[in-house]
Amino acid sequence: MMQISDSYNQKNSLFNAMNRFIGAVNNMDQTVMVPSLLRDVPLDENGDVKAPRPANDTTPAAAAHCTTCFHQDADMYSSYVLLKSIRNDIEWGVLQGDGRGKDRAGVTEVSRVEAEEDDLEKQFRYHLNGLHTVLSKLTHKANMLTNRYKEEIGCGN
């Protein structure tokens, strides 16, 4: 009985979630031979490919159709680059020289003060759960992008 419980807990461990994400991104990276083909292929909220909005179409229906065009990952190419960047950050750590460390300096000091005042175990569990959720979503996104690329180039599963 203990072995079943342990394997379930291992399956849901952060380490395994990171390995699943890294594996999905590695698979995506090996599958996508021409990343430039991903440019201008937008994704909707569900991760489905949708047709690009014509530049001269300013109707409200067209604007509603293209709500994700203004998001950071509006097309498959930017999602591809983002997923690879996150994978590199997980594998190699976040470099302080890339500018992101400076933006977080103020947040780190505030977090340090809060950590002394609040229950550290509660904060740890909250952030661990959030990280696990985000990694699961990113893994799904990498797998979806890989499958979409295969469809785009005509190479089915």
UniProtKB/TrEMBL annotation:
Domain of life: Eukaryota
Pfam family, one: Spot_14
Keyword Cytoplasm attributed: yes
Assigned GO CC terms: cytosol; nucleus
Subcellular location per the Swiss-Prot or TrEMBL entry: Cytoplasm; Nucleus
Single Gene Ontology MF annotation: gamma-tubulin complex binding
Keywords: Cytoplasm, Nucleus
Protein name: MID1 interacting protein 1b
